[in-house]
Specification:
By secondary structure, the chain is α/β, with parallel strands linked by helices. It is built from 5 helices and 5 strands. Helix 1 runs antiparallel to helix 2 and helix 4 packs antiparallel against helix 5.
């Protein structure tokens, strides 16, 4: 099971659009030293090729393998958008989990996070959590 800490969660985010979300997500990973400055562009490029929209208000942006040099160390970050952000023409994201993986960990990380967030009701509750303690309790099925 993945260990998720308060450092990996940002609540109450606001964004104008999906591209703004991707820039915010890249900033969070860069602030923790997980990625370099080019990660933001790599996220935008990946999204133009194929959407990272998962469903039920959830998106899991990540980069293509060809941009793996942008990753210093593996990490992820949860961003909550209680008011929602238009992800594309027909979807709205309330919870975004950005993933940066090093040395082939990409599929395992995405799979673990997808398993953790497979319950639609859990994603809805996470998108409405008022504080990080509540968020982590919901995430870890302790509430």
């Amino acid at each position: 099971m993945m260990k998720i800490t308060a450092e990996e969660v940002t609540l109450g985010c606001r964004a104008k659009n999906r591209d703004d979300v991707l820039r915010q997500a890249a900033f969070e990973l860069a602030a923790r030293g997980c990625v370099d400055i080019g990660f933001s562009k790599a996220l935008l490029d990946r999204e133009k090729e194929l959407s990272t929209w998962i469903g039920s208000g959830l998106a899991m942006p990540h980069i293509n393998r060809r941009d793996a040099r942008r990753v210093n160390r593996s990490g992820f970050h949860f961003l909550q958008y209680p008011e929602g952000v238009s992800w594309d023409k027909s979807h709205v994201a309330f919870l975004v989990v950005v993933v940066a993986a090093k040395d082939g960990e990409h599929i395992d990380m995405l799979s673990s996070l997808a398993d953790l967030l497979a319950d639609e009701r859990k994603v809805t509750r996470l998108s409405l959590a008022a504080n990080k303690e509540a968020f982590l309790n919901i995430l870890n099925d302790q509430e």
